[in-house]
Amino acid sequence: MRQMEFGMTTIWRERPTPTPTMCPTPCLFYDYLKREGVLNFTKGIPTSLAMGSIQQWDKENAWPPMVHMVIEGFRTSGDIKLMKAAEQMATQWLIVNYKSYSKSYAMFEKYNASMFSEEFGAGGGGEYEVQKGFGWTNG
């Protein structure tokens, strides 16, 4: 199977979409996330584990569409362990969004997934200010 990796999203060239729901081996994807420590993040799934980057798609940012893809991929996997992980991730993600909204009265395009901060709220980095009221978080 030929593949290209972009952060933690793997795109299979034989597939039309880069989602874990299309992944033929969801258990391997889960094991990868676990081995890399991604499942220890309780405020979302970081888009990458790149250290020291100021790019908006790198650590410590969690992007709602990617979090959704991983949760849905695990939820629909048919594997009990992954389905339970999806439920736990979804619950944690709802808490993050609720606490962030309660503090700022806004939904954001990306969220701070840092394990080293008690802060709940918008992520950072990139070429423009963090967007409030982004379509995929308000939708």
From TrEMBL:
EC number(s) given by UniProt? 3.2.1.28
InterPro entries referenced in this protein's UniProt entry, alphabetically: 6-hairpin_glycosidase_sf, 6hp_glycosidase-like_sf, Glyco_hydro_37
Q: Which domain of life is it from?
A: Eukaryota
Alphabetically, the GO molecular function entries are: alpha,alpha-trehalase activity
What residue ranges carry the coiled-coil annotation? none
Q: Which GO terms describe its biological process?
A: trehalose catabolic process
The record's section on PANTHER family has:
TREHALASE (PTHR23403:SF12)
Which family does this protein fall into? Answer: Belongs to the glycosyl hydrolase 37 family.
Its recorded name reads Trehalase
User: What's the source species for this entry?
Assistant: Ditylenchus dipsaci
